[in-house]
Amino acid sequence: MEDKQMLMIPGPTPVPERVLLAMAKHPIGHRSPEFSNLIAECNELLQWLHQTQSDVLTLTVSGTGAMEAGIINFLSRGDRVLVGCNGKFGERWAQVSEAFGLQVEKITAEWGKPLDTEEFKAKLEADTEKEIKAVILTHSETSTGVLNDLQTINSYVKNHGEALIIVDAVTSLGAFDLPIDEWGLDVVASGSQKGYMIPPGLGFVAVSQKAWSAYETATLPKFYLDLGKYKKANAKNSTPFTPPVNLMFGLQAALRMMKAEGLSNIFARHQRMTQATRAGVKALGLSLFAPDEAASTAVTAVVPAAVEAEKIRSVMKKQFDIEMAGGQDHLKGKIFRIGHLGFVSDRDVVTVLSALSATLTELGADNIHSSAGIEAAAKVFASA
């Protein structure tokens, strides 16, 4: 059936009808008073969502663009940085850092395992000359469904005193309690097509005062991604370059929805869906790629034993119009990933588990009890 597709991937995520209708408005001038008022409201709500009083800057980029901006604005060529790598996106930030001539030291973990916080502690404590200028890591590693222990790693960065912490929160911002000011995070990047519930095209960078001090001496080349330009424009409720006006309409509508739901309810909903999805998958006899204690609230990675991952994804899409994500790089064909991020509800989790059960049965998987996944999820919902 046309126009019936259900997105259960970690991005783009489903978009609420209210947001779609807002984006369907006729564009207005991006230098008009009306648009300035919209920016002012969005800026206030973005600070609320990020739990910060510092700048939250809006860029016309993807999450990768937001992270690149977060790296190049506060560092200089030759700076020593630690980069956490336990998935595709951690590896990407190492590549970006190397491309700009930074001295990169990787702290790695097997894909599917969280980063070892004590490795960061050891490196930072050994740096008595304070040569490490930044620690760069992915909070929610989308490629594997692992949530890294950002709070602990950040505490070691704070003890170091000199280094900044630069965080990819692309799939954790809006899905996990991330109190930026309370934790003292310096640079936090995110993207619109995740927890924000709008289409791709906007990136967000929250910046601390400590990071702005580093900006004054940073020498990496930048122009369009020069966050100083965005800071000046932000103070005037404006933008340095032409923004995607209709995406901004959508952002306003989505942030209003999030404010009405409330931060604690948003985080509780994502936690509930994560637990229900994982319980349902286990009940269907499938293995999970990430351990329970490091489970991302954005996406669950599943390891099917007897049935090929890509066959499961194919049947789910063709038969039930449900799209799930596949594995990336060396995990391609070995896992599939169920997104439960943004505009996703308990009903969506029940739907995907029911369809997954039918798919496994169709593909000849043994010992599949059609209601087991739903029953396991229902127990989670009942106890939440």
Record keyword descriptors for this entry.
single chain, 384 residues, alpha/beta, Aspartate Aminotransferase, domain 2, Aspartate Aminotransferase, domain 1, five-stranded mixed beta sheet, 14 helices, 43% helix, globular
Radius of gyration: 21 Å
Going by CATH, the architecture of the largest domain would be 3-Layer(aba) Sandwich
Residues in helices, as a percent range: 40-55%
Sheet with most strands: strand arrangement: 2-10-9-8-5-3-4
| Distance from first to last alpha carbon | 34 Å
CATH class of the largest domain: Alpha Beta
Q: What structural category arises from helix and sheet content?
A: alpha/beta
Mean pLDDT: 97
- The global form is globular
Domain module count:
2
Instruction: Predict the CATH topology of the largest domain.
Output: Aspartate Aminotransferase, domain 2
Order of helices and strands: EHHEHEHEHEEEHEHEEHHHHEEHEEHH
Q: Strand percentage, roughly?
A: 15-25%
The unreliable regions are: none
